[in-house]
Design a protein that fits this description.
The complex is a heterodimer.
Chain A (H helix, E strand, L loop, with lengths): L2 H15 L9 E3 L3 H7 L2 E15 L2 E15 L7 E7 L1 E2 L5 E4 L10 E6 L15 E5 L2 E3 L6 E3 L5 E3 L6 H15 L1
Antiparallel strand pairs in A: 2-3, 2-7, 3-4, 5-6, 7-8, 8-9, 10-11
Chain B lengths: L3 H15 L1 E6 L7 H16 L4 E3 L5 E5 L2 H4 L3 E8 L14 H5 L5 E6 L9 H11 L19 E2 L9 H12 L13 H10 L19 H10 L26 H7 L1
Parallel strand pairs in B: 1-2, 1-3, 3-5
Antiparallel strand pairs in B: 4-5
Helix pairs in contact in B: 2-5
Classes of the chains: A alpha+beta, B alpha/beta.
């Protein structure tokens, strides 16, 4: 390939890398928003502060530390940080294993999370369904759907309306109503 | 007869290329696991004709039950790519020592929730489809996809691979390296797909061109090798530059290099 084509290719690659989205496998029960809100024992909006791998009884666990910016449910001690563990990861020496579709986290990214308090392979409600990543004013789930509000201010998946703060307020209200 | 032979040979090659084996460890859940897996495998085999899923004692892929308390209330099946021997604590307590001894060093495990998997027959079809090379369908659409390859299970999904699933399987078999979106060419749209998938780890990811379980630099290199560069579309009005390559015509590296 010529140098010119290589440059064009790299430019196109950079453009392509600006877009992001998921793929993969593993199966889980599809949950509606009300079902997820009913199941959530912990809910918060926060920032990924650190990610590390721990070996527990020979198994790799990816431990993600979140800095909580807005606690919506659970975590009674009001701690500003919370750790959640996800089964899988790469242990030193290249050993380890990975579960398909298991969400990965980057330090600094901001997420809305509905989670269980128990130590499941993924603590996120619905495996990965109770996770929304902030992208500008939007909160997007792992399949790229936006968490938004309908005309009556109810939470819906896939809409286009609803500012970030309004959506978080609505999640807060819904969770409060369930307590 | 002589004319038939090449066709038979071709079919045999395709069958060999797509044959996938698995073994079943049935302890720790309903006793019908082997039968359930065989039924799901038969659903794929009967529809595809050229694909084969078969049970084999020495297969690198193991279908087994996992501890329901670890799987949680929502996960029906988990596709696990392992690089090492797994500890028994992850698996159901009733897994035999023999199983643990043969779990590594590398391969694929399919874990099933012993209490949920029978409520969602799609889960086994999905996992076996993955083994055959059918990519999972992850869509942002609110309309449910008619596919057994959708990871989110509703309990009312198709009970057999759909036409779309079979098409996806065949497209995968015929796809040229780098043609991630399956449109027959390796171009910007494939690069965009690779960009979206970059960093993903897992089984049978459509953008994992080198099949190493990670969408990364190796896949970019493979895509680069097959990338088709075409000249930009000419303006629709006004005169076109006579020296431009016609749209859709691939530029040769030689001519560019001489231009440089």
């Amino acid at each position: 390939m010529s140098r010119f084509n290589t440059i064009r290719f790299v430019a196109a690659l950079l453009a392509a890398l600006l877009m992001s989205g998921p793929a993969g496998a593993t199966t889980y029960r599809e949950l509606s928003l009300p079902e997820m809100l009913d199941s959530a024992q912990i809910a918060f909006f926060g920032t990924v502060a650190a990610v590390r791998i721990e070996e527990r009884e020979g198994e790799p666990w990816t431990v993600v530390e979140f800095e909580i910016e807005r606690l919506l449910a659970g975590s009674a001690d009001n701690s500003p940080a919370l750790e959640l563990s996800f089964l899988g990861g790469d242990l030193p020496g290249g050993a380890g294993y990975r579960i398909n579709l298991m969400p990965g986290f980057e330090v600094g990214e901001q997420v809305l999370l509905l989670a269980y308090a128990e130590n499941y392979i993924s603590p996120i409600v619905g495996f990965n369904q109770g996770l929304w990543r902030q992208a500008g004013e939007a909160l997007l789930d792992e399949s790229g759907r936006r968490l938004s509000l309908d005309d009556e201010g109810r939470l819906v998946h896939g809409g286009l309306e609803g500012g970030f703060d309004l959506v978080l307020d609505a999640v807060d209200r819904e969770l409060e109503a369930r307590q | 007869m002589k004319r038939l032979l090449p066709i038979q040979l071709l079919l045999a090659v395709i069958m060999f290329a797509t044959a996938q084996s698995y073994r079943v460890e049935g302890s720790g859940g309903p006793l019908t696991l082997a039968e359930d897996v065989a039924t799901a495998a038969q659903a794929w085999n009967s529809l595809t004709g050229e694909a084969t899923l078969e049970q084999e004692a020495s297969a690198g892929t193991t279908i087994r039950f996992a501890d329901p308390e670890l799987m949680g209330p929502d996960v029906v099946s988990a596709t696990v790519v392992r690089d090492t021997v797994m500890n028994d604590t992850v698996l159901n307590d009733t897994v035999s020592n023999d199983t643990a001894a043969t779990a590594g060093p590398a391969g694929l495990d399919i874990w099933l929730h012993p209490e949920l998997y029978r409520d969602y027959p799609q889960a086994l079809l999905h996992e076996l489809g993955l083994l055959l090379g059918v990519p999972a369908v992850v869509s942002a659409s609110e309309e449910p996809e008619e596919s057994v390859m959708t990871p989110a299970l509703t309990g009312t999904g198709p009970d057999a691979p759909t036409e779309g699933d079979i098409e996806a399987l065949r497209a995968g078999q015929e796809r040229i390296s780098g043609d991630i979106d399956g449109d027959g060419r390796v171009d910007l749209s494939d690069l965009a797909e690779l960009g979206r998938a970059y960093g993903q780890r897992g089984v049978n990811l459509v953008a994992d061109l080198d099949d190493d379980g990670v969408v990364g630099a190796g896949d970019v290199e493979l895509l680069r090798e097959n990338y088709i560069f075409t000249a930009p579309e000419p303006p629709t009005t006004g005169e076109t530059d006579a020296t431009e390559t016609a749209p859709g015509v691939e530029e040769s590296d030689e001519s560019e290099e001489s231009a440089e």
